[in-house]
Design a protein that fits this description.
With 105 residues, the chain is mainly alpha-helical. Helices cover 93% and strands 0% of the residues.
Amino acid sequence: MPETSQQIEHLRELIVQRFDSMDRETQLRAEALDVARRDMNRRLDQMNEFREQLARQEMTYLRKDEYDSAHSSMEKRISSLERLVYVGVGAALIINALLVYFLRH
């Protein structure tokens, strides 16, 4: 009988050790899960911050239709100025030619 009692005590110790080991594994897994959760939240926060930054940056962009409209208006103004310059240069050439003609005669 004493051997049986010792065997039972030994088995009880093994079971207690196994439960302690399982408790420790469970605790380590929970800690690892907490670390992973914190890391995931940090990454998600960074992604959300980046997304918000892109949204703020996008608000500063000029839309294509606005650009096209302003560009077309500017092209018309430049074309008008070019015509004015050509007329001015032509007038200056004519005046110059007339001056040369009258000064020589």
